[in-house]
## 1
Amino acid sequence: MSVDLARVLAETAGSAFEQLAFLMVDPDPADPADGAAALEPTQPRVMPDALRGMVVRFRGPTHGSLVVRADPGLMRTIAENILGETDDPEPSLQLDALGEVANVICGNLLPLVDDPAAEYRLDSPLMEADEPPIPPRASVRLSIEGGVAEVILYGAVQ
Amino acid sequence: MGLRVLVVDDSAVMRHLICRTLRLTGLTWDRMEEAGDGAVALAALAESSFDLALVDINMPVMDGEELINRLRSDARHRDMAVLVVSTESGQTRLARLTPKVEGFVHKPFSPEQLLDQITLMMGVPDVC
């Protein structure tokens, strides 16, 4: 896995969480990606059963998908912050909010890791079902204000 | 008289965020409607007139680019201001869209960025 790709993924994801959901990625001085830990493709996730994911598929010169997973508390906080409401948004809105985070990360990431002139079509975010039977190109785990998120790029780009 | 705005985005939370931000602009809004894709937006436009449409690009059924093309080829909507609010960053598509719209706000955006762009397009709000 390219360390630089993981770094770009972490920075793009951090920016999306900060600007869209007003959440700061917790700094991690031990990690060069500043708050994000790059996951190796075969590395087990910390809490796979507790994380729920939304996936955005993209098509263009290359194709693939971007997955964002978050623990239940972080999902609720993301939705509350985007909606500007604090009374436990319904689950469909929490998924919608996480999907929009995935959409923003994906849309901003592709021009950074591919030809900026390339045209990509992004599908609407869907709930993650099964992981693609291929290793991710890059993945990072983010610690965000007490919660955990994973951002994973499958396929495409170098 | 207030403005009539149509917010077109496939994400309900993003439509909510945009509408909430619009209410903070200081502009007076007569009507604020939402559509989840371009086809729904066209149906709304067939029923009502709007001064401003905020349009996402990547949407199911009918995407924002097709919606904008249809609006610009329809004399009834040619004068409606269109602001693209999207993650779209591809230079080719942006170059194609730019002449057809009045503005572009990139996601993620701050409330101030959206407010500034709307104010630039629609005029200074009538508040102190």
Note: The mean pLDDT of chain B is 90.
## 2
Amino acid sequence: MQLHCLGLSHKTAAVELREKFAVADTHLGEVAAQLASLPGIHEAVVVSTCNRVEYYVAAEENGLAAVQEFIQQRAQHALEPFFRLYGTESVRHLFRVVSGLDSMVLGETEILGQVKKAYLAAQSSSATSRNLNKLFQRAFNVAKEVRTKTNITRGPVSTGSAAVDLAEKIFGRLVDCKVMILGAGETAEMTARALQSRGAKAIFVSNRTFERASALANDLGGKAIHFDEWDREFTALDILIGSTGAPHAVVTRKKLQPLMHKRADRPLFCIDLAVPRDFEASVNDLEGVYLYDIDALQSIADQSIQVRRKELTVCETMIERHVGEFHEWFTTPRPVITPMQPQTEAAK
Amino acid sequence: MSAQILPSAFARPEYKPSTGFWPEMHAAVSLIAFGAFALACVAGVMYLVQERLLKKHHLNSVFHALPPIANLSVAVQRLMLAGVVLLAGGIGAGFFVDRSTMREPVAVILWAIGVWLLYGVVLVLRLTHRFSPRRIAWMAVAAFTIALITLTAMSYVHL
């Protein structure tokens, strides 16, 4: 018996292909159980996320053809884009996946939760046993070790998450923070949603087209404001996001300076996502104002990615040690327990 | 008064600190007050460093290690307030100490009152929003530095 991994990921297949083979969360356990019941297959776990579909099986050599046949029939598609990994290669691959080293965003942690969910679904459907239980539990330990002992998850990797991290470094908890979006750009909406996910509650949207502001405000559960009146709400604001299509600066130092005096010394975080920029650069010189434009945020994200890339070698070394230990456990002959024989009359 | 706080600065061979409830309260509360001022000074330095890093977009490991700037601003203000209230208590307790057993020079008493007034004025200016969080951070550092320098200078003058 050997461990195998058959799958496709964002590295090997486009989304059009990945969606053909995707397995819904609610069917992960059921599909794993169907696989495990095939001849020559002992155990199975199916991992399906937006970036990968992977089948982990403990199977005899002759059982692999049945797995391939099963996947093909289920997706009604040929298996050309699938990679096939055997033995320690499949173990190494799983350890890299759960640690976020194989993810689209290096070091992301969401994948760990998704793999855990897939494993629990398979386990509750009785599709796993000694080998895959040991493999996945070891994988979760590896992910934890990689995450806590290296900087692979450190820092924001997108402009949105960089803005949210900065907001937390300025205000601490975002629960009481009030956010205003000038314009109704997509990036601004995503950033506002990211801030909302960390607790920011009051969101104001101000746009030249009031209907568009209303629509976005409804989506975000906020309040729409006429563009000419945005400064009336200014004293209550903590975060101001600019994403208008205006050809000139909407927020100037001259306009902001008198407004800042009314704010009782609360800091103001200005996020300029517009090109051309919505904020005059000299706004950053005002006391208590912290201005970050799209380039500054991108630079923060790039720095984090560089830090993560530097950590790759350390993570790979850590993983290699665990692969070796798992291989040793897997290849160690297991003690054979023979059933007890009833004592014969003569022996009595 | 503060000779009991920093006895080494005023060490004299025949000096014996007064004992009893009021002398001990006076010394203990004054010591805690200066501890609060010292912590306000540290928080002030942290605020100024964090503010500079945020303004210059230098998000290095120091930036990540420091707390949020809004929390630092609140901490500076609260520590200064705690220091002012405690020092008022310490000075007040000093008036209940038996004068015949009290060996503090008058200059030290005046110095403590001066420090209290300095912090008190800074705090009033902050609470009335005449001092920005940045200026209060500077003042937390400056006031503590002034207090330390003057106290050290007085120990050499032996007033």
Note: Chain A is about 45% helix and 15% strand.
## 3
Amino acid sequence: MDTVQTIRVPAGHGRTFSVRRGQVLRVIDAEGQQAADFVALCQADMTEKLSPAHTRRKLRSLFFRVGDELMSSRDRPLLRVLEDTVGVHDANVPACDSTRYGVDFGIEGHRNCLHNLHEGLASHGLSPHDVPEPFNLFQNGPVTADGRMQVTDPISRAGDQITMLALQDLVCAVSSCPQDIIPGNGLKVTPIDIVIADAQADL
Amino acid sequence: MLLMTDGPDRAPVAAQTVRVEAGEVAGVAVRQGQLLKIVAAGECAVACLYGFSDVRPDVFLSVHHTRVFSNSYLLVPGMRLVTNRRRPMMVLGKDSVGHHDLLFPASTTEYLAARGYAGQIGCADAVSAEIKRLGLAPPKLPDPVNLFLRTQLHRDGRIEPMENGTESGDHVIFRVLIDSTFIVSACCTGIEGNDRTAPLELRVAEDLSDL
């Protein structure tokens, strides 16, 4: 079997794509230190979405590991983590949006993850409010001693990747996070690569 | 009332108290500048809090934006609880408990039934019904701020549910910053150590002495 699809997500932009049940999705940090906001919805019923909050409750953890299943808003597993060369991801920060730049930094008109994610999902009839909370792959938000969220850069290097098995037919979107103001992408926004295959061996 | 330079910008509103029975939900309207006190009226209470702007139906309290606004996984006094547009909706001003959750989703009836909590209505189901009854029209059901829900967050990311320990009379007080309707759930959370239900009181007043 061959790789089904490869997608380059340009730096600071987004892409939307489908992954079938049983297929494998690999997300690659092409140049390193780049967060990839990732969302997924069930193809059959897009009111059921990948949910960081339900995943936290299932795993009893802010973070996930290889072998863990990522849960839907109806407590069903949607993805299983097969490989992870980094082991550091975030599932606790909402997507940056126009208010992130406008309210927090006084910058209007900045590219943002919510727009990047919604851009392609809109063709499925979804509004910005329908875009799920993201898993921010490669993003680094360690817990400080007093329970705060440290703002820092990813530890991922060029070519680092996470590979997940789809447990349902999914519509997915990935944004190469355009945050270039605070630590989060090393102050240099770079592309993300996506590979979809029918089996892990084909990757 | 807020101490405005040119004096009060509206007439004072009479204080009110709304009781939330164990396993149920209730809503209360709060004006800008008023205080909202949420009181545990029984042991081991948990109060799942939702807020909706009275001005814009697409603006609501967002637990996720609240975390990132303050770069904090925990809710502590002085923190602003913000909307999905990153604007402060309220500030936690007093807290007799010191343990709350900003990470877990609401229970559903289906979730509770699958875990052996027979006959319990889920928080999400009850709040959705109350939203409809009140004529609110949010674009989605947000995730809640789980007041009094006790967990231990470890530095490796583990979220360890703890025995709740909330006592009758424990409370939090918020200063509310935009006209809002709050819905508070006393439904079962389905989280071990925090899965007993107890009644709550919602008290709203202009000044601390009236709460």
Note: Residues 123-134 of chain B form the longest helix (12 residues).
